[in-house]
Amino acid sequence: MTLPRISAGRHAATAALAAAVWLASATPVLAQAPADAADAAVHSFSANLALASDYRYRGLSQSSGRPAIQGGFDYSHASGFYLGNWNSSISWLGDSHPDVSAPIEMDFYGGYRHAFGDSGWSTDVGVLQYYYPGSYPDRYTSPDTTELYAGIGYGPVTLKYSYAPTNLFGLADSRHSWYADLSANVPLGFWGLTLNAHVGYQKVQVAEASYADWKLGLTKDLGHGFALALAYLDTNADRAVYTSAKGRYLGRATVWGSLSKTF
C-alpha cells in the first residue's frame, strides 16, 4: 500500500508448497479413504498466482506502474476460521529513499467468516499484518502495518471496514487511520463474466492525505483455475502528496489487467 511515501477478496514457492499439499491429499490411500474424505471436508487448502500490469492497492500504485508478480496460499476450516499469506513484488519503498532495499510485500492474515444459512448474509472479521522485509537507513519509519477488519456481505455486495492501530505504511503519526470499502462482484450469467465494482475511502490521520478510490471492471473465467481481469481504476488522491520521489503520480487513472491461476 502506498501512502505519502515521501515522508508515502497472492510467489512460486508458496504455490509449490500448496501444490505439494494438494498432491499429498490427492494420493489414493484406499485403507484411509473414509478418514481422508472427512478430513478434506473439514480442512481446505488453496493457492494462487497472478501477473498484474501494475500492483494497485486502494487505488495507488505499489510498483510504479510496472508489472507485478503476486502469489499466496490459504487455509480454511469448516468452522469458518481461516489463515493465509499473500505476497507481491513492489517498488515504492525503494523509490522512496536511495538506501532502502525492500522489493517484496508479505501479508499475513487470519480471521473468521460466517454465513447465515440461505439468507444471503455473511460476516468476516480478522487481522492483517503487512510486512516489508528489507534493509532501511537509521530513523526510517517502519512501513510494517497492522490492520483489524470487519465486513458484512449480502449476496454479491460487501461492506468492509479496516482500522490501523499502528502507523499506516511508514507514515509517521498516522495511527488510527481507517479504510472503508464497498464492493460488488456480480456474475453476469454469460461468457463466464463477472462485473466488478468498488468504491473506497482512505482516512489518513495526516493533513491532506485522505482520499477516495474507485474501480469498474470485468473478470473472465477461463476455466481450469485461470481468470483474466480488466478494470478502470482512479482516485482523487492529492497529487502533491502522492507523487513519488521519482516524480510519478501514484494515484493516476489507469486501465489495469491481470492473469491469475488458482490451485
What does this structure look like?
The chain is mainly beta. The chain has a single domain (12-262), classed as monomeric porin ompg (Porin). It contains 3 helices and 14 strands. It has a 12-stranded antiparallel β-barrel with strand order 1-4-5-6-7-8-9-10-11-12-13-14. It has a two-stranded antiparallel sheet with strand order 2-3. Residues 3-33 have low confidence and may be disordered.
**CATH H-level homologous superfamily name:** monomeric porin ompg
The H/E string reads HHEEEEEHEEEEEEEEE
Radius of gyration: 19 Å
Please give the oligomerization state of what you see.
single chain
Tell me the distance between the termini.
26 Å
Give, in spatial order, the strands making up the sheet with the most strands: 1-4-5-6-7-8-9-10-11-12-13-14
Which stretches are low in confidence, meaning pLDDT under 50 for 5 or more residues running? 3-33
- How many separate domains? 1
* Helix-strand category: mainly beta
Shape: globular
